[in-house]
Amino acid sequence: MTNKKKNQKTEKSYEMEIEQNSEKEKIIVTINMDKIQVDKGTALHELAKKYQKDYDSPIIIAIVNNKLKELGFVLEEDSQIEFLDIKNKDGYKTYQRSILFLMIKAIRDVTGKDAALETVIHYSINSGVYCELKSELASDIVFLKQVTNRMQEMVKQDILLERKAVKVDAAKKIFEEQGMLDKLELFKYRRSSMINLCKLEDYYDYFYGEIAYSTGCLGVFELFPYDEGFIIQLPKKQEPKVVDTFNPDKKLFKTMKRTSKWGEIMEVENVGDLNRVIASGRMNNLILVSEALMEKRVANIADKIIEDEKKKRFVFIAGPSSSGKTTFANRLGIQLMAHGVNPHTISLDNYFVSRELTPKDEDGKYNFECLEAIDLEQFNKDMSDLLEGKTVDMPHFNFISGEREYKGNYLKLKENDILVIEGIHGLNNKVSYALPEESKFKIYISALTQLNIDNHNRIPTTDARLLRRMVRDNFYRGASATRTIGMWESVRRGEENYIFPFQEQADAMFNSALIYELCVLKQFAEPLLFNVSRDCPEYIEARRLIKMLDYFLGVSSDKVPYNSLLREFIGGSCFG
Fold first, then answer.
1. Do 87 and 57 contact (CB within 8 A), yes or no?
2. Element containing residue 386 per DSSP (H, E)
3. pLDDT value for 21
4. How many CB atoms sit inside 10 A of residue 97's CB?
5. What's the pLDDT tens digit per position in 490-510?
């Protein structure tokens, strides 16, 4: 072959190679049962635009191969994709997180960076989030209107919310420049070498969890002055286009605020503070003080029951799953006995109707959480008879046979006797319709987590309860984390329908959250969470919880007192 022909062939091969490389490599993605071919390197937000018409509210995040991904994520392989809007629980969390980011940036713009450094995100109240400015600025209507206007301006501009992975030292320098001392303390105990910062224009922040792709989808909110700060009111998941009615639960708010003040007194307001206590060897003292505060709150409720002018014969205790109702009832009983009162504990579960009469939910499963699952007529007859001094044979519900049983457990109220009745419907007046109001004292109990990761990242109150239940279900029933997570949404729906609407009717509220408990639960929960298979739907929630627990230094349960409410979940309680 001549050199001329050889050169011509080489030239032709090179041209063909250039032509092939100019065509982008294709991948196959499955979206809502549609299989489509896209360019490798396509970003999720490009595909989201094509599918937005199928959703009632803006697509805000996606599940890609069973992992949550922000819409800026670039596809590099064949993928299963599910887009999520605000109606989805993970989509709603992303919306809430992103709008708080937008709000903090707007406060910074309105006030100047020095004042904005102390914006503190506290806790959820109904469909809003309570926040405070730790500065001399008043969170009045005029100020909040300025912040609102700046937020809406950025929404109209549809500004990109960027993610930037930076080295820890570089992130710490940014935090220091922006005065975020809480984040400096938090990342002092992190093992990772990189941090994913969030950027909005010239402002950097760190958020635990996913954020929206841009500000354009964050327009549904309203700011209201409240107490010493303000509430940013959001839409409900079911109605994502309308801001929910502003009607915060006052008793719940008061309870949350009181608990947060205790955190300030103990100098443990966030996870960084807690880790500092652990690292300095002061954990035992923190446990003792936390338990003493809880016992004091129990004693105060007992005092209130006894000191009431009208004689209370029925104490109703209600609260959501894993609030610690059983241990609380036992500890309250001890405090009542210290007043010379003899308590008798009754579970509303013993008044379940026969299994075949139990109502079923929309999935055809027995609905044990609805009011109709309880024999209200029999319960009220028994309680009225006891109030009248009659002897009553108290029932026991056999969950295996699905029937109530009577085994000669007779009860007659004496002068100093009191009934402590525990059940999720205890605050609903329909449960005790036949009993005089003056004879009833109602207590709402829940684990209202007061601890934040840092000033801008909340720990949802439901997370602690979910971890409690996961550990307890595994310890006592051998249930996997997959099973507990899988049924949690159903449990939450029951709480929304049958517990939360009545919480403000309580005569007393009790927060069962212990400021140190998550660093103890970490040791029990992490192995269970790591065992959740990547292929199952519960994997996403498991990974989120693992990431949350990773912020905590773990501690042994050895120092947890045997009468601690936490023992109800990790075992070793002196109450059995």
1. yes
2. helix 376-387
3. 46
4. 20
5. 889 889 889 999 999 999 999
3-class DSSP string for 38-85 = EECCCEHHHHHHHHHHHCCCCCCEEEECCEEECCCCECCCCEEEEEEC
Let me know: does 343 contact 312? Beta carbons within 8 Å: no
Residue 185 is encoded by which pair of tokens?
A: 């303390």
Q: What is the pLDDT of residues 186-223, one digit of tens each?
A: 988 888 888 999 999 999 999 989 999 999 999 999 99
| Separation of alpha carbons 551 and 522, rounded Å | 10
Question: For 53-71, what is the mean pLDDT?
Answer: 95
Q: What contacts 339, CB < 8 A, 6 or more positions away?
A: 302, 303, 306
Provide the token pair at 230.
């303000």
Instruction: Label residue 23 by pLDDT band (50, 70, 90).
Output: low
The token duo for 548 is: 């949350």
Q: Are 133 and 118 within 8 A, CB to CB?
A: yes
Q: Report in angstroms the alpha-carbon separations of 27 from 73, 381, 443, 468.
A: 15, 68, 58, 42
Dihedral angle sign, alpha carbons of residues 524, 527, 533, 537: positive
Residue 309 confidence (pLDDT): 56
Chain length of the chain: 576
On the question of pLDDT at 22 being above 70, the answer is no
Radius of gyration of the CA atoms of the chain, in A:
28
d(CA 55, CA 235): 16
Q: How confident is the model at residue 455 (pLDDT cuts 50, 70, 90)?
A: very high
The H-or-E segment that residue 440 falls in is strand 440-446
CA-CA distance, 393 to 395, in Å (whole number)?
7
Strand partners, 69: 62
Backbone angles phi, psi at 420, to 5 degrees: -105, 110
Helix 539-549 and helix 517-530, axial crossing angle in degrees, nearest 10: 140
Q: Is the pLDDT of residue 459 over 80?
A: yes
CA distance 328 to 568: 10
Distance (Å, rounded) from C-alpha 500 to C-alpha 130? 18
DSSP-assigned beta bridge partners for residue 511 = 446
Residue 553: which residues within 8 A CB-CB, separation 6 or more?
189, 274, 275, 278, 279, 519
Q: Identify the DSSP state of 356.
A: G
| Residue with token string 């001549």 | 2
Cα–Cα dist 355/401, whole Å? 8
Mean pLDDT throughout 356-384?
Answer: 90
